[in-house]
Amino acid sequence: MGKLAIDPVLITYVSDSVPEQKTAKTLGLFNFFGMASSVVAPWLTGYIGDVTGSQVLAFYIGSILLIAAAVFFFFVIYLRSKKESHA
């Protein structure tokens, strides 16, 4: 589940979650954090590899962050659908 595979889903979700007049600003902020992680992640992975002598820990950290983000995303969708069903 790489960035290219999940980005269209996230961009659509973000676009649908904000008022139309705030879409550009919200997508700009979304893109900023996405690109910031593209700069920080390789450096951090290399640093972890240098300190520990192995990049296995960096892989586990990345996997845990991906799983946590997916759980959080589905939790937000669940709460949003529950709120809309009560409205």
Please characterize this protein's 3D structure.
With 87 residues, this protein is mostly helical. The chain has one domain. 87% of the residues lie in helices and 0% in strands. It has three helices and no strands. Helix 2 packs antiparallel against helix 3 (56-86). 0% of the residues are buried.
Topology overview:
Layout: H1 3-17, H2 23-52, H3 56-86
Helix pairs in contact: 2-3
Q: How does the overall form come out from the CA principal axes?
A: elongated
Compute the separation of the termini in Å: 34 Å
Q: In percent terms, what proportion of residues is strand?
A: under 5%
Overall tally of domains: 1
Outline the low-pLDDT stretches.
none
Structural category is mainly alpha
Average pLDDT, rounded to a whole number, is 88
Q: What is the string of helix and strand elements? A: HHH
In short:
This protein has 87 residues and is mostly helical.
